[in-house]
Structure prediction request, 965 residues.
Amino acid sequence: MQSPADRQDRHEYPAHWEADVVLRDGGTARIRPIAVDDADRLVSFYEQVSDESKYYRFFAPYPRLSAKDVHRFTHHDFVDRVGLAATIGGEFIATVRYDRIGADGMPASAPADEAEVAFLVQDAHQGRGVASALLEHIAAVARERGIRRFAAEVLPTNTKMIKVFTDAGYTQKRSFEDGVVRLEFDLEPTDRSLAVQRAREQRAEARSVRRLLAPGSVAVVGVGRAPGGVGRSVLGNIRDAGHPGRLYAVNKAFPEDLKEVDAVPAYRSVRDIEDPVDLAVVAVPAERVPAVVAECGEHGVQGLVVLSAGYAESGPEGHERQRALVQLARAYGMRIIGPNAFGVINTAPDVRLNASLAPEMPRPGRIGLFAQSGAIGIALLSRLHRRGGGITGVTGVSTFVSAGNRADVSGNDVLQYWYDDPQTDVVLMYLESIGNPRKFTRLARRTAAAKPLVVVQGVGSAPQGHAVRATRLPRETVSALLRQAGVIRVDTITELVDAGLLLARQPLPAGPRVTILGNSESLGVLTYDRCLAEGLRPSRPLDLTTGATAEDFHRALSRALADETCDAVVVTAIPAIGEGSPGDAELAEALRSAAAGMPGKPVLVVHVELGGLAEALSAAASTAPQAGGGAPGAAGGALSPPLPASLERGDPQRAAKRPPTAARAPEKAAPESPEGTAPRLIPAYPAAERAVRALSEAVKYAQWRREAVNPGKVPEYEDIDEKGAAELIGGLLERGQGLTIGAEETCELLDKYGIHVRHALPAPTPDAAAEAARTLGYPVALKATAPHLRHRADLGGVRLDLADEEQLRRAYAELTELFGKPEDLRPVVQGMAPRGVDTVVRAVIDPAAGAVLSFGLAGAASQLLGDMAHRLVPVTDREAASLVRSIRTAPLLFGWRGSTPVDTPALEELLLRVSRLVDDHPEVVAVTLEPVVVAQAGASVLGATVRLAPPPARDDLGPRTLPAY
Prediction:
């Protein structure tokens, strides 16, 4: 960068402006400030720009930059004059700069808050979204430097640049004078600009993943000369899967005269391959990976899957090696899956890519799978394979990603891809860690509104090698926030697959009403009990007796599905012995045909020792893509051979050493039903609790989908003084960087948001207590506010309903006798609030997850049970109502056992006001209202604490960036 002698800045080089971004086509670029030592790069860049683009930039022919121009465009003070460059491979591909101007349009300094902005993009990179990304970053820089408005002058024929400005979503004005279009726009983010930014982010990140999952050509680097080994095995897996694109084997140790390996063209280096390479699978020792990455970058490879280990999972040295790997790949515009990855799979018929250590290509289907570690990836693939072969029927995957250390591509990126992937109907994810909870929650909410998202959240600390943002939130709180976003949270891989199979095969239930029928009374009762335990509303089981025929099952199921009081049906089946007992195929056909007559309701089967029934239920249907559309439906009925024992046991090394297998022929599509729709696939479960748990999750998810259509609104309250609160907060923060403000300031701040705290007066002596009570009026409460006694009525530190001075003095003497001197107790006197239910309201800004609003009942019992509900801020009116009803002890608010119901609307309004406070003022990093007594009419806040601090950085509101490394 710049040397001290050369630097002419008023500020040091702003390294925090450096960022990696994903461009519109899925490639990456680095954005950084332009420095004085960039002169040669700038000149080289300008020489590669067409005369037309130069004309659009300078409004006149401008074939070359003068020495004065170069000096001006590389010397910035990083305040009034700023230049940014987008680079790939260290070379400029685009630049943007702003110059602060005054009201007269001449150069100026602060407090002038307007700047002129201008772009120049190399012609070869136009149309990649480079200018849009640069605009986001230069706007963020300008806001940081006190600039609130940009002005740009553009020739009318420069329609591409006009579109960059107009599409950005900022509030703007346009004028035309002297043959030039002048655009002026405010830099304050708007709802539209944020929506535009996030839509661009989704498209770019989805395309970057698509380049990795659907390459036209693949090179495997590290293919051994002898059979076996990771590289040779992956090469065989890609070849055997039937990938239609070009495939290359690469190893620098190949003899110069070697032309092929396993009938695949062989090369000593990626550079030697004449044709373009879209994807490189890297399976060489970690110390050789940088050289391979550089070769791939110079050849124009679009993305990498790095199977090599020895990175952050191995310790500090490996972490530095991983950081250098990501930086090198991004410098060439490439994205990485891995390192230490298991690989990727895409079963689409026009892709058929198995660039992984899985020796068998999974069946095509509608389920997207994501895992971080190879062991979990093996377990997921193995579980689906086994259950597709004899327990729950033929079910396949659309795509599979094992991200390893997820140094670059993470679950967030893959979610962006699956969101609008027509081949994926259900997403299953095993997340050992969540690197960016705030972004994941946002993406999960959007994805869940379109297709089910089922997640297992790892227990304990993040594995070595995973970059995870620090969070102060308990795991249970994060889980609650995920559920709020529509995520189906389960605890095990078994539950993950159980829920995924149901959601991939059956429609969502309209409600919790369940009909149970079958040929076993005891199994029906067991299913009934499990439904009650899961919060469903089952009808009494219909026992068809052990002598039931296939026709009996068909008739009973048809009748249940036609019943308007039924939302879902669970069929229980046990082996039947007798001359008229139905065979597996006959029973399966009876159930399928009955379900086909009422396709809008889900049907599940609980079977005992009926392996043949499970196979028969899926013999003619699966979740494989249809030839004519994307609905779950047809796939081959033939079962695939079982996975090798090494894969079943989760041994990736033994699986990797397996010799290449013969290619499996694509499975034949099943015939369509007479109506032209896909045959109905009924999931079968070997235990009632597993079927009912999956159904319960589907019911809750369906309810969330219905409510997500109308999520409610954030109310406006006329009595809120947002400006006054901001001034008060600013004044308080001048005292220090982080502080818990005093009682008077707390009451003043909360009062500006319509949150009134009952006044409490200090009582350092009995006489002071009596004087305070006369001021407030009897009856009063006497409370000890020392930290060890605060909010602990169970310890005896609170005396209530003191009707006169005599009772007050007696209570004061009791407290001091029990707990010590008044200076240790810090007693206060407070007017009595109406009797009701004691609750607690909290809000906290977590650096990883964002602002979180929490609610629960006050008291040791609720704390011990962890009975708190949580919502992300800002909270809508519907979310506030849901928050109140989410805790297990909520019945106490609604008249439990004949008690008087309390004023929950007042409580919900209080929650909404607290949500508005922390959302409007991110400097309010923590609020606690305890206790909040909710009475028959109204809610009284008896205690409050507020903590202020400079707001944490909000990367979700800034320009698009990849995680820093």
Q: What stands out?
A: Confidence is low (pLDDT under 50) at residues 1-9, 389-393, 620-678. The radius of gyration is 33 Å.
